[in-house]
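Summary for the steering committee. One of the milestones for this cycle was to obtain a three-dimensional model of the protein with zinc ion bound, which we needed before selecting residues for the alanine scan. The sequence and ligand used are listed below.
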Amino acid sequence: MLLRQWKEPLEQLTLQSPKQTTVISSGFPHNSLNQQSFELNYRCICNHLIEFTRGKNLLRGQSFHAHVIKSGLQTIPLICHHLINFYSKVQLPYLSEQIFRETHFKSSTTWSSIISCFTQNELPFNGLEYFKLMLRNDGMFPDDYTFPLATKACAMVNSHCLGQSVHCLATKIGYDVNVYVGSSVVDMYAKCGSLGDARKMFDDMPERNVVSWSGMIYGYAQMGEDREALTLFKGALLQGLAVNDFTFSSVIRVCGNSTFFELGKQMHALCLKLNYDETSFVGSALISMYSKSGMIEGAYQVFDEVSDKNLGMWNAMLIACAQHAHTKNVFELFKKMKNAGMKPNFITFLCMLYACSHAGLVNEGKHYFSTMKEYGIEPGSQHYASMVDLLGRAGKLDEAMKLIEEMPMQPTESVWGALLTGCRIHGNTELAGSVADRVFEVGPVSPGLHVMLSNAYAAAGRYQEAAKARKMLKDRGQKKETGLSWVEEGNRIHTFAAGDRGHEISDEIYRKLEELGEDMERAGYVADMSYVLKEVGDEEKGRMIRYHSERLAIAFALIKFPKERSIRVMKNLRVCGDCHVAIKFISKCVGRVIIVRDNNRFHRFENGECSCGDYW
Ligand code: ZN
Ligand code: ZN
């Protein structure tokens, strides 16, 4: 079998007299050779190598490589370039490196192939090392092909500083005005988060291409400057630029993050029209957009429609299922993905742990946590936070504490936050108090955790310390983020804060809430005042909690939206416990599906129940 695979290309190759092939084995071709036959042989080898590279056929490629060595042609720069490319594509970059080293005559193509090989195999430091070696090599200058490879590697290691020195070099030898080099510099700055530098470069460019536009849009999207990202995208379309899958994925992510669902759907339609809907890049962005907008059905559909799924796409679907508490599907997808030959990564396991934690599946969570090492992945602090969350919610607080002690790195704020949540749910005020002592000893923390810690003191009856902690926060001038909820109506986003009376139909909204309140009380709802932190009378507390931002947004949607349209409300903070109960009652009283996305997860309220099963 192996022999046949090996012989097939060989037969085609030796159509000319085999003797001549042997002559060539002395090395580089000389004039004494039959030039025509050499040309044929040489072109034939290149074509075969290109074919194997494209098909990622390791076995056939390797046997063919053996043949190339025998014929002595492997030192010819172009063949060497194709061999490096071949091993790069089959993800064996160190074999590419070996070929590179064995080549005596290195052309600029040989250099760029090895740099490209390492950047494509996610070894940016090696790529940069070769870029440096190339510069040291006399007479060798980077060109409009090598510069973009170097800037890409800088973006991968997220080093603005390294990138800047590559940019400097390009300017020195006059390549900065080249559209490919300039665009790659824009892209690099944007990916390193240096939007100012990226924009300056972008504005100064004499000519721009899809890479510079996409890089800029990606940069804005990444920094949460949604409006700017969308404006730029519109600009690109107006200029008749042929946008690519990368541009689309950035813009769709903007729609997902800001839950511009209507706009997101329009983007999906545009992708369909331009045939970009089948790429896994766009597919992953669409899945996350549908999922974040609460429309998991849309996510499933996109996932099924894309036939060639990459790891990012599997991960996007796993996250979507986990967020919507489709836990069974998470486990099934994990199996399917392994069967499809996908190797789970760091993110995959985060999804698995997240799903287990939100479904309260302790044993399964432990299983996946220990499986990580089998795949050669060391658990990161996020994985530990997820495990602590899982154990804490299940009431296994001692075990959670033990896990924190075992962490090979400093516990992060999310780890402590997860433990405090567990303490609160299970009323372990003593542990919460001692956690607060320990965390405050280390140094200042973010306002969110600070509030949790001072609440932990209060719950433990240590009021003086609680007051001190609160004062500390005030002195540092840090405020808790204002809770906002918003709802999308056509092209408009309506935003509400707690007790907000600024909306144009405010009176109607409050009337609706009064009405609802009566219906809910009849159905058995009693407000839980413990979620109001300020010290006010009970009647005042009732009023405050009744007008939390998500309730105002829901009331608005109930007034404005047709009955068949589901209600989707987004919130920047966690939904409080009382609102969670209240929305369950609302969904029952009005007989509608209400989807609330808070900063932690999804809640799909239907007929008095929530999809999260009260785990949030
Ligand atoms: Zn609330
Ligand atoms: Zn819920």
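Key point for the committee: The radius of gyration is 30 Å.
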